[in-house]
Design a protein that fits this description.
mainly alpha, 69% helix
């Protein structure tokens, strides 16, 4: 393992000329607004999905609770 010497030179950067086309801020702002809208819609979709899953778990719990009560009653009948 060899130690690398520390250098303090500036990284080379490419020199570019400024573009002659104007920056179209209106289009950039519109794009950012569309991205934010998409982000909000995705968040809403995730919230709805979590609520749907919670309802499914509740429904599943009630179903298995009903089956367990039926099995307990049946077992009591057959024990007597």
């Amino acid at each position: 393992m060899s130690a690398q010497p520390i250098t303090f030179e500036q990284p080379r950067t490419a020199r570019v000329r400024p573009s002659s086309t104007p920056v179209q801020t209106k289009e950039i702002i519109e794009m950012l607004m569309q991205e934010e809208l998409a982000r909000v819609r995705i968040q809403e979709m995730h919230q709805e999905m979590r609520a749907h899953q919670a309802r499914g778990r509740d429904r599943s719990f009630r179903r298995w609770d009903r089956v367990a009560r039926w099995a307990a009653r049946r077992a009591d009948r057959h024990r007597s």
